[in-house]
Amino acid sequence: MEGIINNFRRARAHQNTKHIIISMMSVDSREKATKYVGKKVIFTTETGKEISGEIRAAHGNSGCIRAIFERSLPGQSLGQKVKVM
After folding, report:
1. Percentage of residues in the chain with pLDDT exceeding 70?
2. How does the average pLDDT of the chain come out, rounded?
3. Minimal CA–CA distance to 36: which of 22, 51, 48?
4. Count of alpha carbons within 13 Å of 72, Cβ hemisphere only?
5. What is the Cα–Cα distance from 43 to 18, expressed in whole angstroms?
6. What is the pTM of this model?
7. Which residues make beta-bridge pairs with 55?
């Protein structure tokens, strides 16, 4: 399944580049998003490196999810696709 990286999880003064908010294509409610909690997420860079993470929680009521990655993602990752396994 695929998702798109929406934004970093952020506060007013800073952003945490390990915590990512992802929107899923076929998920449109919080109940559907909670089914993905605990699954793995993989982002592939342009050079072929894979950065993996885990879905930790739903975000909001419209089906977005929060994922925490093992290391920070680059700024170019915004708007890119990720694989959910």
Report:
1. 100
2. 95
3. 22
4. 8
5. 12
6. 0.90
7. 67
Give the SS3 label for residue 81.
Answer: strand
- Contact residues for 59 (Cβ-Cβ < 8 A; gap 6+): 21, 33, 65, 66
Measure the CA–CA gap between 26 and 49, rounded to whole angstroms.
27
* pLDDT value at 25 more than 90: no
Within a 10 A sphere around the Cβ of 48, how many other Cβ atoms? 6
Rounded Cα gap, residues 35 and 11, in angstroms:
26
Q: Which residues contact 75 (CB under 8 A, 6 or more apart)?
A: none
Structural domains in the chain, CATH included, are: 2-84 (2.40.10.190)
| Paired tokens of 14 | 């800073």
- Residue 36: is it exposed, middle or buried by C-beta count within 10 angstroms (0-12/13-18/19+)? buried
